[in-house]
């Protein structure tokens, strides 16, 4: 005899399954490898030959986060030549997280990072008015590095001062730390979601978790992973 169908159990299981759609920006100077990072992350594909992105491009990454959670990441690949113009306000709208990318072999692209971060923070915020979580990607770490990226301690300090949620050395070519960086950003986005939707009873706990995650109680070095290139 087949087992009896339990409608309530099925409804409960369905109710517990959650889906999220998150808009994530990928910004930074021209030629830093933004498109390559997205192609590697979404399609596990790398090419030496990409034409410069014109305006903005999109990609979708679906994550089976856990048994009850599906996360869809809408990745916005914004052209480096947009250069903090008026259109970036339109592109940034409703984003809940961001990557800023620089090329470790070109120190000028690192010098521009702070301008991209300031532009981001002035044009998009979380519902409580705080900046959206942003992770700094030191890309092309398979090449010779220039500047303070050679000192993890200085990079940690820089990220704390500029309000980054963390940083990772990445390589789209060698597939280094891209999955890890994305997972770190999604974790911070989920924490912000909990803060936003939790009731007053739970709010204090999540606020404490948020402070710890952002090092506001006891500042700790970035958890970014470094490639041994």
From TrEMBL:
Function: The small GTPases Rab are key regulators in vesicle trafficking.
Single GO biological process annotation from the record: phagosome-lysosome fusion
Topology term for the membrane: Lipid-anchor
Keywords attached to this entry: GTP-binding, Lipoprotein, Membrane, Nucleotide-binding, Prenylation
Compartments in which it is found: Membrane
Name of the featured protein: Ras-related protein Rab
PROSITE patterns: RAB, RAS
GO cellular component: late endosome; lysosome; membrane; phagocytic vesicle; trans-Golgi network
GO MF annotation terms: GTP binding; GTPase activity
Protein source organism: Bicyclus anynana (Squinting bush brown butterfly)
Similarity section: Belongs to the small GTPase superfamily. Rab family.
């Amino acid at each position: 005899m087949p087992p009896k169908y339990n409608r309530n159990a099925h409804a409960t299981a369905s109710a517990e399954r959650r889906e999220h759609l998150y808009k994530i920006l990928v910004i930074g100077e021209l030629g830093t490898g933004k498109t390559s990072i997205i192609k590697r992350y979404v399609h596990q594909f790398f090419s030496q030959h990409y034409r410069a992105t014109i305006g903005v491009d999109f990609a979708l990454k679906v994550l089976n986060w856990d048994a009850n959670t599906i996360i869809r990441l809408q990745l916005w690949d914004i052209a480096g030549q947009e250069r903090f113009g008026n259109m970036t306000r339109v592109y940034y709208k409703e984003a809940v997280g961001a990557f800023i990318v620089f090329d470790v072999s070109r120190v000028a692209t690192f010098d521009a990072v702070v301008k991209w971060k300031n532009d981001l923070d002035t044009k998009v915020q979380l519902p409580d008015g705080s900046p959206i979580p942003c992770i700094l990607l030191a890309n092309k770490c398979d090449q010779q590095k220039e500047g303070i990226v050679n000192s993890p301690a200085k990079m940690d300090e820089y990220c704390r001062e500029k309000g980054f949620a963390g940083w990772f050395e990445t390589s789209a070519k060698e597939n280094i730390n891209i999955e890890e960086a994305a997972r770190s950003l999604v974790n911070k986005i989920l924490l912000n979601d909990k803060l936003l939707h939790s009731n007053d009873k739970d709010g204090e706990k999540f606020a404490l978790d948020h402070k710890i995650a952002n090092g506001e109680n006891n500042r700790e070095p970035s958890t970014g992973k470094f490639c041994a290139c």
